[in-house]
């Protein structure tokens, strides 16, 4: 595990030094991480990267080399640098479970810790969780578009660097992919890796047929052939069929073909006809080449004969929406035992944060479908035996009353008093949990384009607190 | 340095195993890395990431743990895994210098090595060089739009993970940024880091004024204040002016203000008026908030009073064009001493690669401006004392003749016989080189939108080779 303690914006450290000089660095504060707009222009966001965030917190420490570097910047007092030498995270962190589906303005992670600790971790927390949540969400959308066909992550060469390719592959698996081409991700996260041959294999031999024969000879039971190096229908598929017949005559079952260029709808349908006529009716027809959830939806609706999808660049970078705008805002500050809620005003009312130390609950109907979320103060409880009325935090006249419902508290302790409470799960376990989560969502929230907006409401107590703060806030 | 040997697509390893089984793995081949479309929809691309690619090659080896993992996949023969144990790169790699400006279809990096080595390194090479070249190019565009104002890289929290934020910061510095907020990047690459305070600093104090006073007290000579937490013109700027006056009365020179929301044009002009009236006429007015080269161009043309730019999300992800589509194609294969050029045909003629072992030269006019590039076979020479006629590789009737010119060969040896020939330069040295490179380009090629297309032509010998191959290629 690398030491990422300096993976932070310099202003976190200039502020820490300032808090230290003003002797308020030990004040207990509450920060929330949340986003204001779902990933990928969609109707929901899958939280991912929690495990790497936990690793980051567990490894937080300033090495001598780090401190020497900070000293060289001539910004910090010696006392402060000495203080950093013993830095250790001692606070509380509450988080939703990795793989949980979340919605705008909900606290995903809430940190209650001494100011200097809570402030330092902002940047790394956002970097880690924003990216993996983005890619997990993107992958889930691609998988939804593929309607149950297997989707494979193929994007390493176009990822934003080695780690983006590797942790992006992790997130893509969490989002629902069946495997990745990234061998390092396979090793690190114990997930299936897949791959056969590239155009260069086909080119290396004197003819395409020789290249296919050679591949079949080495991998008789794993023979999937790339058929578009020269001409799919005049050369690639006929040569593949020759080789498949030979394999079948020797008792092997060929796997299928891959198309990586051209009109995937037309080519897949024609290739399937040729394979069917040759008696190979149940092979994999894999397509790759600049796919995303929109193209897959189109190809499906046009009747493409593709039953397996390799998705690269546009998945691993979430190309049409390449960042999740997660933020981390001060929500409260303690003076002794009394809590002082904090608010950041903005020209745009939707950007005003929810103050106070909060938690979040999800309301399910009798069939287990999620109906709404409810942001409340941390010490509030819901009596699920009584009807519950929730209302829109901005358009307060919009309200809904639930009669028969169950509730689930989404925050779990990740660290308490600096001690790690995280239950590590495998990537495949998290992927299964994501599927459970998705099954609780009505289809309308999962629609690829123009999804319905999920209800996220505030408790009366929280709404009153926020209104009062806005009314009384001193602005100078 | 981490071991990135498994940072590869599985098909590279299935192919390696196949080549090994067919005993053609030691055949000497030539691969070219090139892209077909410039980064960021622009007129040029700055090559970056060469140093990390060199590190990757120098560290290539399969650890026992790697081999154990590969064995667990049940895809590879024992002989092959034993063979990998002693894997070492022994080939030749030619590359342009890091920071060189390149254009579509030009070989950036050419690898001449035994097939199994040249094939393995494809994915990591592309991952490393595609990403850093993308961000270096994006940064250079942002800096061009800022017309000499300093530009700072602020994007870590929205980067595609920790490494994308850190190596992205390196690339942004190479592209022309003056500094980064990323402390780890500052430490790793010895580049300036910058940062002051966030909204949470302002919120932590009872009033904005107190927060400014506290900051000025701790950093009297580095006082740049964030003025948009409550209200820029009614609160932020007036409070900043109070504090600046106090600082000035004590002999300190305040640095300036930062705007992070609202209408940056209007707010900056009004803030500047207020600062000017208070006698602070030469302060930094820094703007941040979703900036890119297009918004900066607009703000400049509207007369915004901004003279320093913090650019985050849209720089570190190259948001409107988040990948560079670099590819790596087999160009030749040796049989003994004789070279067999290789070509990949495509439905789209522009996608056909240039075959053979090649080099690239740049032609400069008497004033040192780059006029055209010329892709030639590796053993060709240009006699610069004679006129030179170049022609378009697709539209061959388009030709240009140069009378008075100089030439520069762009490829340099990076590895020869596995031995590293790379001359390491600092990031700041590479940034200086990029500025030299940009100064050789006519403005038309650097235009942010709709740039002129730079001429990249083929030598007659290469063009003939390509035409013959296309005419005679056996497709089955």
From TrEMBL, chains A, B:
GO terms for biological process: NAD+ biosynthetic process via the salvage pathway. Pathway: Cofactor biosynthesis; NAD(+) biosynthesis; nicotinate D-ribonucleotide from nicotinate: step 1/1. Its EC number is 6.3.4.21. It comes from the Bacteria. Residues 152-321 form the Nicotinate/nicotinamide phosphoribosyltransferase domain. It is an enzyme of class 6 (ligase). GO terms for molecular function: nicotinamide phosphoribosyltransferase activity; nicotinate phosphoribosyltransferase activity. Residues 6-130 form the Nicotinate phosphoribosyltransferase N-terminal domain. InterPro entries: Aldolase_TIM, N/Namide_PRibTrfase, NAPRTase_C, NAPRTase_N, Nic_PRibTrfase-Fam, Nic_PRibTrfase_pncB, Nicotinate_pribotase-like_C. The keyword Repeat does not apply. Transiently phosphorylated on a His residue during the reaction cycle. Phosphorylation strongly increases the affinity for substrates and increases the rate of nicotinate D-ribonucleotide production. Dephosphorylation regenerates the low-affinity form of the enzyme, leading to product release. Catalyzes the first step in the biosynthesis of NAD from nicotinic acid, the ATP-dependent synthesis of beta-nicotinate D-ribonucleotide from nicotinate and 5-phospho-D-ribose 1-phosphate. Belongs to the NAPRTase family. This is Nicotinate phosphoribosyltransferase. It comes from Romboutsia weinsteinii.
